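hi!! sorry for the late reply, been swamped w classes. u asked for the two structures so here they r. pasted raw, havent cleaned anything up. first the sequence of the first protein and right below it the tokens
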Amino acid sequence: MFEGRCRIKASAPAFQTVNTPFNPQVYTMDVVILAAGRGTRLLPLTATRPKPMVPLLNKPLMDYGMARLQKINANRIIILVDYLGHHIVSRYKDWDGYEVLFTEKNEPLGTAGAVGVVAEDMHDTFLVLSGDVLADLDLQALLQFHQEMGAEATMALSRVDDPSQYGIAILDDDGRVTRFLEKPPRAKAFSNLVNAGIYVFEPGAFEELPPDRPFDVARHLYPQMLESSRRLYGFPFEGYWNDVGRPGNYLLATEDCLRGRYRTDATPAISAAQEGGYLMTGRDCTIGRDVTIRNFAILGDEVEIRAGATLNSSVLFPHTVVGEKCNIQESIVGERCVLEQGVVVRAGSVVGDACYIKAGSVLGYNTRLWPGSRLGEGTLVNPD
């Protein structure tokens, strides 16, 4: 069916098909998942993994969106990959009995261009999800609204306090989009309803894409549809939404999951009563004497926390060692890092994978440390 769509080799099929059971009486709708981006706002974490594979409560972020597909009658799951895409293929090629397909080399096409290639081989309504978004959205209600309105495209919309980082929309009384603008300056934002990165499309929505340049859903396709008076609708929802776009959003999402603001099947391995904090560990972790947890700490597999350390609202990825009397505040530390005795990591910092920080060093507020960095004893980065 998909012959001639490949952008890797002319002789290869566009999709890599996984041999998983397919029951047409149960699964009826195709789902496209956008997972090709570079996640630059989460650097240096995304220097070594695609953003959908960043762990949240010790599971890849994309797992949460994939799990929600159980709420609808999904047929095929088509995942659009590019940057470090082999991580995503390895994780999801045998996902939960679904037929899972992949396309590669999508980033240069833009989101609309990449989805448009897939849409050429579709004949009915399909759902598009962002692989790096957490959303407590009733997908069935979204699909029903789209069908009842006779829409060509419907975007889910969430309300936020600062809409300047998102596309914003105004709707008429029927939910039809009358105005849309991508990432306006905060002072010029005319709405706090923002594009949540979850869409329903008819295949015909992609019939007029230009063949010779990247084309994005929010920046290009939606303005084009409005200019042509095509049937573009918005579906506001009040449930949880977080695009996990920045380290601060990531830590907030972590706390929201722990405190039940976003519902997951994850339960903290240890719930510590220290100042109301949570401690969640992966496998084979080691925690020394007199370790203090404030608010929360998430430890990946085989993390070691030595005596007297303090962790406050922080996440440590697998195979990392935190030395005696270290103090990590509202920060993220990547895989296979070593922090020797007395290291201080101040709020807003992100330490990339495989860093070695020697005793007594201090990372100042909002420091980004690139993977593989080595800091000598007593180093001060961005000192106060």
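now the second protein. again sequence first, tokens right under
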Amino acid sequence: MIQEFLLPDLGEGLPEAEIVQWHVSEGDTVTLNQTIAEVETAKAIVEIPSPYAGTVQGLHAAAGDVVAVGSPLVSFAVGTDAGSPAPEGRTTPEPVSADRPAEIEADPPVPEAVEPRAAGDLRSTAPGESDKATPNLVGYGAAPASGSRPRRRARGGATAVLDTDHAVREAAPHDVLRTGPIDLPLERPRSTPPVRKLAKDLGVDLVLVAAAHPGETVTRAHVEEFAARTPTEAPALASTVPPADPASVGARVTRLPIRGVRKHTAAAMVRSAFTAPHATTFLTLDVTATTELLASLKNDRALDGHRIGVLAIVAKAVCLALGRTPALNASWDEAAGEIAVHHYVNLGIAAATERGLVVPVIPDADALPLVELADAIAELAATARAGRTSPAAMTGGTFSITNVGVFGVDAGTPILNPGEAGILAVGAVRRTPWEHRGEIALRDVLTLSLSFDHRLVDGAEAARFLTDVAGVLREPGRALLLR
């Protein structure tokens, strides 16, 4: 019989998702858990696995369309004869769920009747059973990873590398540095795979085409029209001035839609800035001992395959320091009139991606030894750069770190993530004349910037926390003394 699959709740109560691309077409035969589509929410790109084994009868949205949760996404022909409706009395086979093994039969037994399903529910319910909560699709039933999956491509012209410290750059979980105009859209323009291929073949930048048609899905006609108006070799993006709107050369303003990660980040930052009273304190310190330690670790054969950088050392120091200053690892619960002090550290690491800023979380980072913490940061960075960080991976943080040094910045005043009491910005490591043992010498120096919620943290506590972090960076052996 024909079974409609509704777009499920992808986590965090997000009301809609945009179709990035389909992996199936009408008439294709699919298996359980096969990836059928990629969708983009306000937080992440999520792969949608098929909850049925059968034949795709119809796709209810095109790439670039925004679909509300609970709306039809795709229709399947399921049952013993996927090409025709099942005999009367037969119902939908139960789709795979998190509590069932993946190795189930292609056509499992089905009950005689089912209760009506709520929008987005992925499971059938036999008579007499109570309605169960809709399972969260994120992380459930995912198909095995495949090397054939297309990767999201960085847009725009040549990439310029800033003159920043090498160790910081290696450790930073940031995407490649870009010098393009900061007001270009960082989300991928709405288009279909054939249109994107056409744009690539013609040397057309879809960002520029999308700027000429704000709020619209970029079509083949848009790309061909833009290609006809521009030289055969598309110029690289200007480094400081945004490109002119192709539809109105000479226009002084280009208007771009606010959506995706940019929209979500903006809302979160405004909520944080106008909810928590921010304060920031700074500390500049000599980290030569840390950089020398990292240089020695690179030659250690026991650490082959592991990349330990300045950021990993900072993360370890933060976890140790939070144990001595619990106020910075707490949350202000206005509704309950309580302060929740966390006895674990879920460490958020800010990552700049082509879709905007995301802050994935390393759960129980305080329980990880340095090597495992460095591996977790590297994995987090790779996932974020590929746009595969799930919404669930960006929740539950108790403290965050942002590495502004990778952009050549010495210090800043970062804004707190909502619900967290502190965020630490790590500046660039610079070779600087510095007082050392009574003399002036060239030393590796960086600046730490700590923003904190002044409802939870006093200035003295913030200063003690920074001093503890700095103590580990000045003398890494001090980590043996902290508990």
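hope this helps!! also noticed smth abt the second:
The longest strand covers residues 439-453.
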